[in-house]
Amino acid sequence: MGLSTLIACHECDLLQRRVPLANAGVARCRRCDAVLYRGSSSEDSDRALAYTLGGLILFLIANAYPIVALELQANRQAASLYDTVHALWVDGREDVSLLVAFTTLVTPALEISLLLYLLIPLRFGRTPSETVAVLRFLQRVKPWSMMEVFLLGILVSLVKLEHLAHVEPGIALWAFGALIPVLIAAAGAFNPDDIWAKIDHVA
Amino acid sequence: MNQHPVTARQVGLCACHTCGLLSKWKRDHAGLTCPRCSSHLHLRKPDSIARMWAFLIASYLLFLPANLLPIMHTNSLFGAQSDTIMSGIVYLWVSGSWHLAMVVFIASILVPSAKLLALTFLAVSVQKRSQWDPIQRTNLYRIVELVGRWSMLDIFVVSVLVALVQLQSLATIRAGHGAVAFGAVVVLTMFAAMEFDPRLIWDPQDDPR
User: Fold this and answer.
1) Residue B29 sits in which domain range?
2) Does B179 lie in the same domain as B76?
3) Using CB atoms, which residue from A12, A149, A163 is nearest to B152?
4) Residue range A49-103, pLDDT digits in tens
5) Which member of A34, A37, A68 has the closest CB to residue B164?
6) Are residues B153 and B191 both part of a single domain?
7) In terms of domains, do B36 and B72 share one?
8) A130-167: string of b/e by CB count within 10 Å (b at 16+)?
9) Chain B residues with beta carbon closer than 8 angstroms to that of A147
């Protein structure tokens, strides 16, 4: 079909001809400079899978251990990510609690597991049955995953508490710090256009 | 290369919002779906500006309580204290961490207010079919999309503090009403930015009436 040689910019609707790209190339709109698509290499999905698996491990560590502990005159209080959600809920701020849970727990967990749902079968040359729905969902949910903002939030609160008590960074804080670049790398290597193209060939 | 830019809409094509596939657009087909990913097809996001105004007006209404009501209450041996977003920044500043005070000021005050103004400007300019510098306005939209999420910073700071500072008799921190309003402003402005369709910026010059 002739239409597949064309692409419309998603930001300014300019119609342009698709050109083949080298591995690390990026096609930009001639008029508004939006990124239209990226060049794909065969290793892309392998790299995306490796980073996502690494992300999964770090995510589990980041959730299983306390992020920080606070010590003040023989009183010790440690908090994990879940504890922050729980403390807000107990405090009667269910709305804020849900917002924090959604942006730092539920969405990242969904993102990582859905990426694995797509990437593991693709590694073995199969296309998972719900690919279309999953890709659509991932696109919708992406802006709501706010791990990196949460990490900055932890750092700001540590500085605030420093004057009040002795604060001790926990294992989960380091895991969070490592998780963010790994997730960014996974997102950079994951190329949904490739998967859409595969679906085209099947259909 | 041809000199006249041609848009997909001018030649009767419609790009899928989800997968980018081009389809032929039929004027009377309201319920058209993408043959590849079966998303609903629209030439432009439906009712983009009207929905955007709804979210923007709600954000403006909540913006005042978000900044005036306390976002957290501290009870300690030294007495009780309520903090708004601004007083939290002042506290950071006077206690010597001026760099963090700057970060929180940018994330919690500057970004949300600039974002509201930028989105309002975009909505008005599109409604008036302005042809003023589409590239600048597209860039403005991209910046808004990029930085909007960082406003959530203060919500996360409060939630970490609430979880950590539960030292019975010594000190406790509780979240205030301001945190709810502030979280709502961040979420609503994110919705407003998602409803905006940057192609509307270019339409007046591509299809002059």
Assistant:
1) 1-43
2) yes
3) A149
4) 999 999 999 999 999 999 988 887 777 888 889 989 998 998 888 899 999 999 9
5) A68
6) yes
7) no
8) ebbebbbebeebebbbbbbbbbbbbbbbbbbbeebbeb
9) none
Using a cut of 0.95, tell me whether the model's pTM lies above it. no
| Shared domain check, B120 and B36 | no
**Same domain, residue pair B38 and B83:** no
Alpha carbon of A51: minimum distance to chain B alpha carbons (Å): 23
Q: Does B79 touch chain A (CB under 8 A)?
A: no
Structural domain tally of chain B? 2
Q: Is B70 on the interface with A (CB under 8 A)?
A: no
Q: What is the CATH number of the domain that holds B141?
A: 1.20.140
How many beta-carbon pairs below 8 A join chains A and B?
196
Three-state DSSP at B12 gives coil
Cβ-Cβ contacts under 8 Å for B84 (sequence gap 6 or more): B67, B68, B69, B70, B71, B178
Residue pLDDT, tens place only, B8-17 = 888 888 888 8
How many whole angstroms separate alpha carbon A20 and alpha carbon A29? 14
CB contact (8 A) between residue B7 and residue A13: yes
Q: Cα–Cα distance between A35 and A56 in angstroms, integer?
A: 28
